Amino acid sequence: MFRYMKVLSYLLLFTSLTHAQTQLTVYNHGEALVKEQFSRQIQKGLSEIEIERVAETLNPSSVKLSSNQDIQVLEQNYRYDLVDQNKLLKKYLEAEVTVILQNDNKISGTLLSYDNNSLVLNSRGATDIVQRNFVGTIKCPSPTERLYVRPTLAWTLNAARSGAVTFDLSYLTGGISWRAEYVAIINSDDSEMDLSSWINLNNQSGKDYESAKLKLVAGDLHRARPEQLYDARREKAQMLAMRTMPIVEERSFFEYHLYEIAFPVSVHNREEKQIQWLNPTLVQAQKRYVYQGTQDQFTNIPITIMFTNDKKTGTGVALPGGIVRLFKKDTDGALELIGEDNLKHTSRDDLVTLEVGEAFDVKGKREVLDRRSKSDRFLEEDIRITLANRKDEAVEVEVIQTVGYGNWKVQNATHPYTKVDASRVKFTASVPANEEVVLTYTTRIDLK
N or C: which terminus of the chain carries fewer CB neighbours within 10 A? Predict the structure, then answer.
């Protein structure tokens, strides 16, 4: 009975470890932290253990192995020189091999050399050059060393006693990245938009992660990248939402923001996956025409959509950086793309400005009418900005202009203005339908 219970306890231990959930924390700079658990029977004293199916793009120096017992890790090896035909042939140089041609003829001899086109064999004092496109099979001796078909981590251990051991493994790997993808649907008068978002996860790490606990970290981590080190593996690696359950939990983490998926996620190698995390949220918005041009001929004025990311008028949650695609319904009810822009990491209560495109019918030009200076005392310029509205409705245009640095002032302005910062001013001008408005002002910079 005791022996049966002991065997049963080992089976339960093995089952629980086999089904231990993988944890995957993905950073938006294209790296991930993998945490797994596995079990092995360990002998007292020195022994070696291995685990296969690790990421092909892992960073060996980041590997951490720990256990629930008194075990010392003496050595660690990452074996990623995976077997292929040419690597096998290299191991059998100067060994006896048999080449079976496609016409079933056989050539046996010592393998002297090989390349992608031919094999060179020494057979009975003669040298045979065999074209590889005529080769059907190459029979080689049994290998004398372990051949690896998958990336493998191996450790040499020193254990105080024998028995089943639970190991916790963690490592950093490249080849996994995530970004946010936003969809904003603007209403008819451009005063509100329906904002939703998907998480886009891309796995090129060479490993599958089944039913993993997934966390995503948004923020700019400082990473040490010694220029003299080169890692060929890193170079190579380059669901519909249920409104009744919280799909993604967002919370602050150190000086970053962490997004935890509420359900297990399987992330397969060479797979791009989308997970909805921000259900459609009504956001109050403003459309603005902002002219900052310097050309003396008419150019189209950029259009921006702005909103404050607070609880009252916005989403009220921190938004990770990503692409925002803006849509609007046409008269037939079909959604049409009106522009897209990159959203930076956005905190709660931040002002968000998205550049949509350039207005087809709202234009501006800037002309310098006169320049005056007196020795090294001052410099004056007379500026004229013409705003043209070819639309059938009035528009309001913000005009932001750079004046200069140092001791400057604006004089004789036809429109009210505000100081934006140490070098710029902002005018606001209403432009009636199908009309032009002329804004003039003088800038004076004291040079002494």
Answer: N
Whether 310 is covered by a domain: the verdict is no
H or E stretch covering 53: none
Both tokens of residue 429?
């001008």
Residue at 37 is within a domain: no
Q: What is the pLDDT of residues 95-153, one digit of tens each?
A: 888 888 888 888 888 888 888 888 888 887 788 888 888 888 888 887 767 777 788 89
For residue 115, report the phi and psi dihedrals to the nearest 5 degrees: -150, -170
Q: Which of 170, 162, 165 is nearest to 25 (CA)?
A: 170
Which domain covers residue 117, as residue numbers? 85-139
* Residue 162, domain member (yes or no): no
CA distances, 85 to each of 22, 53, 139, 429 (Å)? 33, 21, 12, 73
CA distance 233 to 230: 9
Identify the DSSP state of 319.
B
Phi–psi pair at 12, nearest 5 degrees: -65, -40
Can you tell me the distance from the alpha carbon of 184 to that of 284, in angstroms, rounded to the nearest whole number?
Answer: 12
352-380 residue pLDDT tens: 999 999 999 999 999 999 999 887 788 89
State the DSSP string of 361-373.
Answer: EEEEEEEEEEEEE
Tokens of 108: 């046996």
Which residue do the tokens 């080449």 mark?
Answer: 99
Total domains present in the chain: 2
DSSP 87: H
